[in-house]
Amino acid sequence: MAFSRDRIRHPFALRRLRVSAVDRVVPNIVRVTLTGPELADFASSGPGDHVKVFFPDPASGILTLPDVDAQGLRRGEQGVVISRDYTPRAIRPAELELDLDIVIHGVDGPASAWAQVAKPGDWLGVAGPRGSRLVPSGIEQLVVIADETGLPAVGRWLELLPAGVPVTGLFFVLDESVESYFDQEAASRLDAEWVTRDDGRTALEESLRSLGSIGGTTFVFMAGEADLLVPLRRYLRHELSLPAEQVSASGYWRRGIVNLDHHAPLDPGDPD
Ligand SMILES: Cc1cc2nc3c(=O)[nH]c(=O)nc-3n(C[C@H](O)[C@H](O)[C@H](O)COP(=O)(O)OP(=O)(O)OC[C@H]3O[C@@H](n4cnc5c(N)ncnc54)[C@H](O)[C@@H]3O)c2cc1C
After folding, report:
1. CATH architecture assigned to 7-131
2. Residue nearest to atom 29 of ligand 1 (CA)
């Protein structure tokens, strides 16, 4: 069966939003709640949606936003513009609130460094989402494979999936403290296996292979460190012969690369 996934376009907006709350969901993931009147018409209806988040320059602390014109975002003449991609984890338009879950991985990334010391009253810019790809119609089972950066998207899948669709999760994380990321309701929907990233690529691939064959009404969503996803995608696409519409594999970051362009093919030697 070929899945069809509707796309919805949203009016483009760049919003300047104030931090109203900061919470450590687990030791290395910070939930930042943003607020502002511009959130009244914020729309995001796809589980894999992302926004472009603008952070202050770590050197000066100054937040510089790009200019917006008919073509979209344009870098202005002044200031240092720094942006990274994040998943809109929860949206509460009536309360004018948006949650982002930001992984802390050290101080060499401006987003991670900002999140470590984020506090109410700080400001960020948020652009998009430009559009949403909805949950595939006809889905009867979901397999999600993610590291910490993909967990917010998995959280959205769990909320947007029709009731009764079983979900198998294969998560590759730094340590077991991340295992309490999902609240009880979400966790109860998941048949989850947590693999420690230090066990490496082999353990992850073995866990995926141990799921056995994957039926035509099962959708597979993968998000996380790009190099770890490459062999998993190859296994699904070539050994199991799953069509491209049945597998969504997105590199959310790549070891050693600053601000990975996720629109570039995950596996340049074998693009979809
Ligand atoms: C569509 C999409 C949605 C995303 N959603 C989320 C989300 O909801 N939450 C989230 O936390 N991230 C998410 N990401 C990933 C996030 O955009 C990247 O991790 C980003 O590079 C972080 O920016 P930074 O400034 O901290 O590090 P950068 O300046 O981009 O990178 C600095 C160094 O840190 C490394 N690095 C980057 N991220 C990580 C990491 N997670 N762990 C270890 N090393 C890392 C890089 O390889 C580089 O060497 C998403 C990415 C995409 C494409």
Report:
1. Beta Barrel (2.40)
2. 109
83: CA distance to ligand 1 center in Å?
11
> Ligand 1 centre from 205 Cα, in Å?
22
The CA 252 to ligand 1 mean position distance, Å, reads 6
Ligand 1 pocket, Cβ-based, cut-off 6 angstroms: 50, 84-87, 101-103, 105, 108-112, 149, 152, 250, 252-259, 262
Q: Which of 78, 76, 73, 79 is nearest to 126 (CA)?
A: 73
Fold type of domain 135-253: Rossmann fold (3.40.50)
**Residue 225 Cα to ligand 1 middle (Å):** 9
Of the candidates 65, 16, 13, the one whose C-alpha atom is nearest the C-alpha of residue 41 is 13
> Which residues in the chain show pLDDT less than 50?
none
Q: In angstroms, how far is the first alpha carbon of the chain from the final one?
A: 18
Query: What's the whole-model pTM score?
Result: 0.97
The answer to whether the beta carbons of residues 36 and 54 sit under 8 Å apart is no
User: Residue 114: its pLDDT value, please?
Assistant: 97
What was the pLDDT predicted at 79? 86
Domain ranges for the chain: 7-131, 135-253
pLDDT, tens digit, 9 for 90 and up, residues 155-187: 999 999 999 999 999 999 999 999 999 999 999
Task: Answer whether 128's CB lies under 8 Å from 52's CB.
Answer: yes
